[in-house]
Every structure is written in structure tokens, then in C-alpha cells.
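The protein record passed on for reference:
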Amino acid sequence: MNSTEITASNDAFIKAWRYWSDRSPAGTVAHLDGVIAPWMNHTWPICNLSFLADEVRDEADLTRRIEAALAHAQTRQLGWIFFVSADFLPAALRPRMETIFARYALTAGFTMTGMASEALLPPRRTLPTLDIRPVNDAANRSAVGEINCQGYHMPEEWGIEALNVAPLWETPPAYGYVAYLDGQPVSCAKTVVLDDYLYVGLVATRPGHQGHGYGEAVMRHSITQAQQACGLQRIVLHATDQGLPLYQAMGFHAITPFQGFMLPHEE
């Protein structure tokens, strides 16, 4: 993958989380020494992220940036994640990336892969018929929080508190939807207009309802609504390992993996 796409994927990750931070009641965006940290300042660690601002020159440069991110986090006393693409490191440094972070008690957690698509492929199967509703009230905002936390095995109250915030869902630029089955919310997705592309996030399905195409159905609906409203075709996202196969089948190509580093008690 070329460096331009890798840089664009890193920038999209930052801009997406800045979108959240800028619209959260306690959100902040810190520009540190080679690090950008958009934080919602919430208990849920995924709400508080740090990223490399640009490519790392050498080991001393990397350690300085880690120390800057740690110093910022220590003033907050909240769970957080430092997402790093190994492609932003010199080739000789990449095999030792985890070892260097471990010196600061930051351990490798889950990975998110930057992906993009210029045009989605047709569905592989007939998608289910669902009652898909816009996220325009407290009930549906809370449903998105519940579904995401259930899908990723986190306390539901974290998601409800973080996401039941009206400015996060204003249309435009956000196109958020919840899919209902038999009157119960089962899946959700959100598409946001960022610059000249669309960014998809918060795709999740309740345990027990996964594997039926609900996530794909609500995600495609969200993307379609955003595209019809703004005319943009390029779609960007960052996929968990769980979601990666679906997105590849939908026509997204992988750009670069981002390794998340966390303190052990925050995993």
C-alpha cells in the first residue's frame, strides 16, 4: 500500500474521533509532541484515543511521542488507547514496536484495520427486511450505545452515557440508523461526512442476532442515505478483526492495520 493512502487512513482516524470529541460535552483535542489526542473524556476507553501526527523518524522520536501521550493521559485518569500504524515507523523499528511500548507498560490490545472503498459491491445474499429508524431521539441514541457495548462486551452504561448526546447525531453531517426486528433494536451504523469522503462507524449487532445480515443491511442503508444527500462516493472506515471479512466482501480494501496499545488495567 502506498504511503499516501496510509497517511490518509491515519488522518481519517484522527478526524473521525475529532468529530466525536468536538461534539461531546467534555471533549478536547490535544496537539502534543508528534501526537494528536482527540478525547471525549469518558470512562469508555475507545472514546479517548491518541495517534501519531506523522511518520516517526527513529526510536528516540517514537519514545518521545509515547512519553507525551502518557503525560497527557496521566492528567485525565481515564482509560485510553494509543493507535499506531507500524507503517508510520522506520522498517527496522517495526519488529520491535510492541517491545518499545511495553517499556512504558503499554500492551498491544486489539487491532483496527484502515479500509476504503470507491464503490460498494452488491450484497452476496438477499438482505433481511428490517424496520430501520433514524437516530433522532434519546431512545435510539441509547440503543446505539447498548448495542455497541453488548457487541464488544463492555458495560452498557458506558455506551449510553457517551452516545446519548444530541450534537453527535445532527443530520447533516451524521446519518445514524438503528435496525429493529419485531420491535426490538438489533443493529446500528452511522455514516459521517468528513471533508471529501464518508466515514462509517458504530457498526454493531446484538449478540444472538449476529450472522443474519442485520449489520450489513443497516450499514448499507446509512451509507446510501449519506450518499444521496451529499453525492460523495468514497467511503472510509477502521475495522475490528470481527468486522473485517464483511467489509472486504462489501468492496472495501485494507490499507494498514492500527495496533491499539493500552495500560493493562484498561484492556
